[in-house]
Amino acid sequence: METRLRDALSQLESRRDAYLGYPVSKDFRFSDLADFLNVPLNNLGDPFSDSTWQMATREFEREVLADAADWLRAPTDNWWGYVANGGSEGNLYGLYLARELLPEAIVYFSQATHYSVSKNLHLLNMRHIMIRADEAGEMDYEDLRESIRINRDKPVVIFANIGTTMTEARDDLSRIQGILDELAISQRYIHSDAAFIGLAAPFMTPRPLFDFADGADSISISGHKFIGCPIPCGIVLARKSHVDRIARSIAYIGSLDTTISGSRNGLTPLMLWLRLKELGKEGMAKRVEESLALADWAEQRFSEAGIAVWRNPGAFTLVFPRPSDTVIRRFQLASEGQWSHVICVPGIQQKDIQALLDALREEETTAT
Questions:
Q1: Are 191 and 285 members of one domain?
Q2: Of 67, 76, 110, 207, which shows the fewest CB atoms inside 10 Å?
Q3: For every one of its 368 residues, what pLDDT tens digit does the chain have, with 9 covering 90 and above?
Q4: Please, which residues bridge with residue 313 across strands?
């Protein structure tokens, strides 16, 4: 057993050093939390409610949520959230909350939206309309305006992408709000899917328009992406006044039933807490600056190599023509159609980008 585990770890470490195509940071270590693996952690129920089950890390979870609420400019005394299993659960929660508040609403989302959202809409049985996206992946606002105009007798739920999967495109909440105002849509709900850049965006210049101060009613973030965590996890935040309308008390656990799942991971809040305390605002700002600098360098190197690379303004993601399957497998490049991408997350270095460029150059030389 020990040999097999050592071999598996060695193989995974080798694969970790090679991947360039997924938005998952590599620069973390959690050995200080090893002893927590020996206790049955379960953040059962609502993170802000006591429970008869006490093997939990709710105190740490609340601190994580408070930091996220501060960075995302949540309204004082009117926010709520929890640490979820990932960004997709956060999106499911945001849509669930919207459905309960506006059961007759139509959900509008772009064709560049993450694949899990269609599944979530099917699970929730919500009426929806897909909006065109431009070549860069941003929502087509004229198509959105016309679609809402035709159905303006129905409440509107906007599912906004704050960093699409393939191109890191960002939908503009200011333009979306302007359309809703223009069409006099009073019954509205906006959910921001900020899975990758949610906690990085507050430190970008210009700052993307996506958070509570910009009109969002709920926001979903993946904890294992830009922050870095060995276990998939996420943070979902929403306006507390919305959540209070659907909460219910459960006698069995002595807590409120406000989350998607009953039992919840008690280890990931510790990991997120540790990372946020280690980094702080200054550390996150530096993390963003260094990652964007690497993206700038990589874009220049791709261009110098004659590769048709492009990126959205201020993005960590570089898109370029799809290489051979051999190169895709070696560097674990996420690909769609004729395009692949590299994402400059913390932990990736210039030498890693250069190794990919060398492989692409060698492939081109062999082909000619």
A1: no
A2: 76
A3: 999 999 999 999 999 999 999 999 999 999 999 999 999 999 998 999 888 889 999 999 999 999 999 999 999 999 999 999 999 999 999 999 999 999 999 999 999 998 889 999 999 999 999 999 999 999 999 999 999 999 999 999 999 999 999 999 999 999 999 999 999 999 999 999 999 999 999 999 999 999 999 999 999 999 999 999 999 999 999 999 999 887 654 343 445 678 998 889 999 999 999 999 999 999 999 999 999 999 999 999 999 999 999 999 999 999 999 999 999 999 999 999 999 999 999 999 999 999 999 999 988 777 66
A4: none
Same domain, 356 and 248: no
What does residue 67 show for φ and ψ, rounded to 5 degrees?
Answer: -65, -45
CA 218 – CA 191 distance, rounded (Å): 5
Could you tell me if 203 and 288 are in contact, meaning their C-beta atoms sit under 8 angstroms apart? yes
Looking at the structure, tell me whether residues 263 and 289 fall in a common domain.
no
| The last residue of a domain, from among 257, 276, 295 | 276
The verdict on 19 and 103 lying in the same domain is: no
Identify the H or E element spanning 328: helix 325-331
Q: How many angstroms separate the Cα of 266 from the Cα of each of 84, 275, 362?
A: 10, 15, 47
pTM: 0.95
Largest CA distance in the chain: 71
Q: What are phi and psi of 189, to 5 degrees?
A: -145, 135
